[in-house]
Amino acid sequence: MSSVVREGLEKRLQFGSRTLKHEADVFQHNAWDNVEWNVERSAEAAAKVSENSTPLLSRQEADNYERQSSFYWDEFYRQHSCGFFKDRKWLFTEFPELECFIGSANDHHVHPDQCKWLLEVGCGVGNTVIPLMQATAGSELRFYACDFSSVAVDLLRRNVAFDANRCNAFVWDICDEQKELPFAERSLDYVSLIFVLSSLDPSKFGQAVANVVRCLKPNGLLLFRDYGRYDMAQLRFKKGRCISDNFYARGDGTRVYFFTPEEVDALFVKYGLEKDVQSVDSSYVQVALKK
């Protein structure tokens, strides 16, 4: 077993070890493992959100964030490069549907007809696709990776761990249905949509999901994870940052929405997906959906 795969498996054993021992510490982290989200905590969180949701930004301010969204994300990656997000080595724990590709005995010369294809939407600088490529080296899994930011895609391509023989990285605004993609519709086995949808204006959720769903072949899987309602990130927003209900502008100009499980279910069912497995905690909404 390679050192990369071994490290990933060791990380999996450690995942889920953050337990809340003292009630006073509940707001010290964005997430705790195995903590009951009771009525009292929910009421306290709702009060914080009600407080930080007024006043709303003006329509002019909100429109400006929308018009300059690509600029803000490009600036984000110019400033932080590859150093902001941690590699998502928890993916195989949270999405065991991908475990079958770990430590595969196949060599790199897999026949094209045998390949399985995964599209990572919102790839950024590669904090998901790079660990996936490393952990599944030698398997039949191949990748497409796209992002709204051309700066992010360029940084990914220049990463020394990026394998152009297994991954095609390109720029795509998933709200754009006219974009010519490097693969046929209904041809992909997996699509990952992890902390991406929340960055869009809620009015564009439907178009984005419709575009992504068209990429999946019948019985393909969409792997979704995003911010849940009352995540600590939402509770910590100050007044004057709220654009609309549960939708906020960060200080760097990027935006974030906080979902309920019911919203996620309704959105994906509307566009032809069936819930396979869902996991919800006080910070995140996560679901695997089948076409």
Automatic annotation (TrEMBL):
Methyltransferase type domain mapped to chain residues: 119-222
Any matching Pfam family: Methyltransf_12
This protein's UniProt keywords: Methyltransferase, Transferase
Domain of life: Eukaryota
A molecular-function term among this protein's GO annotations: tRNA (cytidine-3-)-methyltransferase activity
Transmembrane spans: none
Gene3D superfamilies membership: Vaccinia Virus protein VP39
Enzyme Commission number: 2.1.1.-
GO biological process, one term: methylation
PANTHER family: METHYLTRANSFERASE-RELATED (PTHR22809), TRNA N(3)-METHYLCYTIDINE METHYLTRANSFERASE METTL2 (PTHR22809:SF11)
Membership in a protein family: Belongs to the methyltransferase superfamily. METL family.
Chain's role: S-adenosyl-L-methionine-dependent methyltransferase.
Protein name: tRNA N(3)-methylcytidine methyltransferase
Origin species: Trichuris muris
Taxonomic lineage of the native organism: Eukaryota, Metazoa, Ecdysozoa, Nematoda, Enoplea
